[in-house]
Structures are given as C-alpha cells and as structure tokens.
Amino acid sequence: MKAQLILLGAPGSGKGTQAARLVSDxxxxxxxTGDLLRNEIAKESELGxxxxxxxxxxxxxxxxxxxxxxxxxxDLTSGSYIFDGFPRNxxxxxxxxxxxIKDVAHKAIYFDIDLDILAERLVNRxxxxxxxxxxxxxxxxxxxxxxxxxxxxxxxxxxxxDNEESVKTRLGVFKSTIDPVLSYYEEKGALxxxxxxxxxxxxxxxxxxxxx
Length: 212
Ligand code: ADP
Ligand code: ZN
Hints:
This protein has a single domain, classed as Rossmann fold. 47% of the residues lie in helices and 17% in strands. It has 8 helices and 8 strands. The strands form 2 sheets. The protein has a 5-stranded parallel sheet with strand order 2-3-1-4-8, with helices on both faces. The protein has a 3-stranded antiparallel sheet with strand order 6-5-7. Helix 1 packs across helix 8 and helix 2 packs across helix 3. The radius of gyration is 17 Å and the shape is globular. The site of adenosine-5'-diphosphate (ADP) has 18 residues, from helix 2 and helix 3.
C-alpha cells in the first residue's frame, strides 16, 4: 500500500488542486476536512449549523469536532488517503497519529509559498459546483466566462470564506499554528517541502517524486 499523504500548506497554496491530481493519476482517496464540514453545512445538520459562522469568519472549528468527522469518514484499511486540511495544529497532528494513522506509513508534504501572494489568489478562486474543478480568475480562468471547461456547468461558485476579511483571518490562523506542525513531522523524518509557487504541473511532478 502507498504511504498515507498529509498535505500541509496555507489556504490557497494549491493543496486541493494537487490532491485532485493525486486521486486521478495515482489512485489515492481524498479526504478534506473543509469539504466534510461544508457538506454538513449544505445538509443543514446540527453540526453544520454549529460550524457555519466559525467557518464563514475563517476561524478554526474545535479539534474534537473535526477529528470525529475525519474518523467517521476514513478507513485506512481500504486504501491510501490524502489528508487535506488536517492537521491544522500540533494537537491535531498528534491526534491524527494516535487515533487515525497509528503505525501505517505516512509522509507529510508542505506546500511552501510566500504568504503575501495568497490573499489575492484566494479572493479570485472559483469552484465548479457541479464537478469540483478549481479555477482562478488570475491564472487559471475558465475559457468561457462563467462556464466550467471540464463539465460545461455554469455554477462557478466563490466560497463564502474567500472574501477579504475571512482570508485575512485564515492566513493569520495559519501563520500562528503551522510551525510546530512542521517541526513535528520534520523531527520524525516524514516531512518533504515542495516549492508551491511553481506552475501546478511542476508542483505535481515534485509531489509525485515524493510519493515514489
Ligand atoms: P482553506 O485551507 O482554504 O482555508 P479548508 O477547506 O481546508 O480551506 O478549510 C475551510 C475552513 O474549514 C477553515 O477555515 C476552518 O474553519 C474549517 N476547518 C477545516 N479543516 C479544519 C481543521 N482541521 N481544524 C479546524 N477547522 C478546520
Ligand atoms: Zn465542472
């Protein structure tokens, strides 16, 4: 079985885009805690109602809630996963090891990028509501305005938390929590850094080399 992959990186660093390619090219299963939480909001579940405001503001949901959701949605005996958006802090990293990954082989990939360019990237991000393809009006705009290249759907949505104020909060949260997480994986020799400012194809090549 391939090593479990943990993608670490700031909002907008390209984790989601790379995760989609790892799924289609290498057969990984993708688990994004952000997507799981947004699903709960869409379903209008109790959990969704509880986290809606927190997420819109760009703050972190509490560790216990996110860990429970993660545990309920992955089964490591069934294949290799990409963890996207989890862990967000040191407690989550430790919990992921103890409760989910246990002693299965794993690697963490850090998408290293200058945080100053990310705010502009994030407010220009759009996602196809039909097939999930991710666009950016700055450097990966759909060929026809408002129409998905991949599925021709016309629901190119902007995430509620991709507005200037929430983006500022999300980047601030990231800055204040990431260093101990990186040290944690570095100390056990499981961390690989990739330069995430390269083109998405170049980043994918680097990511693939890590996986092999
Ligand atoms: P991004 O990395 O672009 O901010 P995500 O989809 O990973 O997007 O996360 C969106 C939001 O979901 C976060 O701002 C936070 O509110 C919540 N969230 C996602 N993953 C976690 C997590 N591991 N712990 C706490 N909150 C989380
Ligand atoms: Zn689409």
